[in-house]
Specification:
The protein is α/β, with parallel strands linked by helices. It folds into three domains: 206 residues, Rossmann fold; 158 residues, TPP-binding domain (Rossmann fold, 3-Layer(aba) Sandwich), CATH 3.40.50.1220; 186 residues, Thiamin diphosphate (ThDP)-binding fold, Pyr/PP domains (Rossmann fold), CATH 3.40.50.970. Helices cover 41% and strands 17% of the residues. β15 and β16 form a beta hairpin. α10 packs across α14. The longest helix has 27 residues.
Length: 630
């Protein structure tokens, strides 16, 4: 304590928190004169007040010796009803829940961990937010600034600011080495987590010794959330060039990335005005209604007959809001006949990913609207593009026929289960259809469940499904369910997960009860990492160390947690549907265990339709890529 100014009296902290609660907000408390704008408090209280100015009032926390001061401030402010803190048991699961709270429910939260291992785990989980452009505050304890000796759990070694350097690799990071740096830290944080087109996690490091230091805080000077105007290029010549390309091309494909989700109407209008086939990414399902004639479904390494046909035979590519992830564009060789590209993106780097590109930079909605207006004044010969759309429609019919064959194949005799069980496509289809009948949000975990899932879903709105393909983090979907309870969102939720993904973060069984979550988890159990098993078999003809011999009674496991209701999903579509209905009516977390087939006769999945730069396929893919000019 000798190195710190005298800590503020708890009564003063409680009085300030009470003033805010009574006034209804921090701004009202200042306006009514109940709270001064300039006063002395600890760094941690100033941080909480600064985050309140940005609309952050929910904290997801696992406290440790590196965050006790912040925990005490949050205790007092929660007692007054100003903030809420939700405790967790695993930092990765907590990071997923924080990401989902911002991504799905629109509330930017702050995540709090102690120093060392907890912070490292949370940072690993933040890969989801970083990969998908989601704003979240990550607040970690850190080593002291005086160098009096190693602090327990710091990164060992004599380097200065080691953890700050580590987090800076993942994204923007700031170490509060002195309390007076708070203003700049919050300014950088605000511009990161609230960025209009490329939001990201912001890593705020709190050294143990600076947390309780007192400082003179000026609330009026701390940054407040402000709305930024949407921006777009004002140079019409780029739109004219794009319109000319659309007019001259015959086989046009639109690749609709995740950035198109808020702009369904604009994308649909562009497709219809240009005569383009639309290929979805895993996260853009529903941007066009499933039955729309120009919707070719998902395309990529785990794409579809119709989606990949459109990619492979197009001569003009229109990319919208996509990052050209390896599996999405088949490691750069997904468009072998394309000669020119129109790329609509707010990020200049992503907009220039392909060669021979007309970049249309700015807000996606504004850009597409302007391009549509330009096309209205251009003579686009839509009848000339009809043969292309007819050919794509025929492939879409082939895809529908294939999907129905997979669903109709019936239960398959499986060696592991010793009896006939549903295939994963059959079981996922039953659960997807049930989810849609109750308008449940479908969340898909990484792995084979995810891949089959985005091939199977037939959404008409983009808010029907969330599939985290940015990082494909196993355990995200089940952990993300907690965000619904934290947000107070009563919409039904169903998490689709494999046995491997579920065991990455089974803490949801406890977190769900703790936070009053009502949702359903469906575990599709094939006793293996089926996505990798199938990849090994496709590449090398045999699988290796991607399955196990350990039988787990998931119904008994989940039932051990009081408040969780668990069910056996059975071995038929009728039984599974009936069980899902029972699970939905449970007032809490329900778990449905579904054994699924994995013996490899072709019925176990929806297939692969593109190339991927992985393993022994690398040379072939890279050789083709090297010869392409786009």
């Amino acid at each position: 304590m000798a190195e710190n100014s005298a800590p503020d009296h708890p009564g003063n902290i409680a009085a300030r928190a009470g003033a805010i609660a009574t006034a209804g907000s921090l701004e009202e408390a200042i306006a009514l004169g109940k709270l001064p704008t300039y006063f002395e408090c600890t760094l941690c209280e100033a941080l909480v007040l600064g985050l309140l100015k940005q609309g952050v009032s929910k904290y997801l926390a696992i406290f440790g010796h590196g965050s006790t001061q912040l925990g005490e401030i949050l205790r007092i402010y929660e007692d007054a009803g100003v903030t809420r803190t939700f405790q967790f048991r695993n930092e990765v699961a907590m990071a997923h829940a924080a990401t989902a709270l911002s991504w799905i429910h629109g509330e930017v939260p702050a995540l709090v961990t102690s120093i060392g291992p907890g912070a490292l785990q949370a940072m690993a989980g933040s890969l989801v937010a970083a990969s998908n452009g989601v704003g979240v505050y990550h607040i970690y304890g850190d080593e002291t600034t005086h160098g009096e000796g190693y602090n327990m759990q710091q990164i060992p070694g004599p380097a200065q600011g080691a953890f700050g350097a580590l987090t800076a690799i993942m994204g923007r990071s700031y170490t509060l080495h002195t309390p007076e740096a708070l203003r700049e830290a919050l300014r950088q944080g605000l511009s990161t987590v609230r960025h209009p087109t490329r939001a990201a996690p912001f890593y705020l490091l709190l050294p143990i010794n600076t947390q309780p230091k007192t400082m003179q805080v000026n609330l009026a000077a701390l940054p407040v959330q402000q709305e930024l105007p949407a921006q777009t290029s004002s140079d019409q010549k780029f739109y004219d060039r794009a319109a000319a390309l659309i007019g001259s091309a015959r086989n046009i494909v639109i690749k609709a990335g995740g950035g198109t989700r808020p702009f369904c109407g604009e994308v649909t209008a562009l497709a219809e005005k240009s005569g383009a086939a639309v290929v979805l990414s895993p996260h853009s399902s529903g941007v066009l209604p499933d039955a729309h004639r120009q919707n070719m479904h998902v395309g990529g390494s785990k794409g579809s007959i119709s989606g990949n046909y459109a990619m492979e035979n197009a001569d003009l590519l229109i990319v919208i809001g996509a990052r050209a992830v390896c599996q999405s564009d088949c490691s750069g060789i997904g468009y072998p006949r394309v000669k020119s590209v129109i790329n609509i993106n707010a990020d200049s780097h992503d907009a220039l990913h392909y060669n021979h590109t007309v970049p249309l930079l700015g807000d996606i909605g504004m850009v597409i609207s302007r391009l549509n207006t330009t096309l209205d004044g251009t003579n686009v010969d839509l009848p000339a593009k009809k043969p292309w759309l007819d050919a794509c429609a025929a492939k879409k019919s082939d895809w529908a026929t294939f999907k129905q064959q997979q669903y109709d194949a019936g239960p398959q005799q499986d060696r592991v289960w010793g009896r006939p069980v549903l295939t994963q496509p059959q079981a996922i289809k039953v659960a997807v259809d049930f989810a849609d009948t109750i308008d449940a949000l479908k969340l898909f975990d990484a792995g084979d469940v995810q891949a089959n899932g985005f091939q199977i879903v037939e959404d008409d709105r983009p808010d029907q499904t969330v599939t985290e393909t940015g990082a494909s983090y196993m355990g995200f979907a089940v952990s993300a369910l907690t965000a619904g309870a934290i947000a107070g969102d009563k919409r039904p939720q169903i998490a689709f997960t494999g046995d491997g993904s579920f065991f990455m973060n089974p803490q949801i069984l406890i977190d769900a009860v703790e936070h009053g979550l009502k949702a359903t988890i469906v575990i599709f159990d094939n006793r293996r990492m089926a996505a990798i098993t199938n990849l090994q078999r496709a590449q090398y003809g045999v699988d290796f160390r991607t399955s196990d011999n350990v039988a787990v009674n998931y119904v008994q496991l989940a039932s051990a947690v009081r408040g969780v209701m668990a069910f056996d999903g059975g071995g038929s579509r009728e039984t599974l549907h009936a069980v899902l209905q029972k699970a939905h009516h449970h007032d809490g977390l329900s778990v449905v265990h579904v054994p699924v087939y994995a013996d490899g006769n072709g019925a176990e999945g929806m297939g692969s339709y593109g190339s991927w730069n992985v393993g022994n396929w690398c040379d072939a893919v890279q050789t083709i890529y090297a010869k392409q000019s786009v």
